[in-house]
Write a structure and sequence with these properties.
By secondary structure, the protein is mainly alpha-helical. The protein folds into two domains: about 60 residues; about 60 residues, no CATH class. Helices cover about 75% and strands about 0% of the residues. The protein has five helices and no strands. Helix 1 runs parallel beside helix 3 and helix 2 runs antiparallel to helix 5. The chain is globular, with a radius of gyration of 18 Å. The N and C termini lie far apart (about 50 Å).
């Protein structure tokens, strides 16, 4: 099944806009919807360059305004996550990938719907990040 070029370009433009909003903190669950929408036009491989481009703008905006201790705390988890994700994507059957992606999107969407209720149940006590 081929996709009409006009629909393809419109969909990619809309998804790039959604990713930009999500990276900027305005998109809520829009970033989670980008991947399933790209699957509809059969170009899931396009999401990585779009995310990389969005990351360049996000990093340039926050350049040298981060807490190095906090960034160092994130690196081990990021390495583990990327490794597990790469292993899963390269070895899982297509149907398993679709199902997993669908479940993840549903969980994120459900969380956003119930976010205010969940936050009322949890008590958050901020602490000074300089002690991290």
């Amino acid at each position: 099944m081929t996709v009409d070029p006009l629909i393809f370009y419109i969909m990619v433009a809309v998804i790039a806009f959604m990713i930009g909003l999500a990276k900027g903190g305005l998109g809520c669950t829009l970033g989670a919807l980008a991947t399933p929408l790209l699957v509809l036009v059969k170009v899931i491989g396009l999401i990585l360059p779009i995310l990389m481009l969005a990351d360049i703008f996000a990093v340039s905006f926050h350049w040298r305004r981060w807490n190095s201790k906090l960034v160092l705390l994130l690196i081990p988890g990021a390495i583990v996550g990327v490794t597990i994700g790469t292993f899963f994507i390269t070895n899982a059957p297509t149907e398993t990938l679709r199902t997993t992606l669908g479940v993840i999107v549903l969980i994120f969407s459900l969380y956003k719907i119930l976010e205010s209720r969940i936050q009322r149940l949890l008590t958050y006590r901020p602490r000074n990040c300089m002690d991290c």
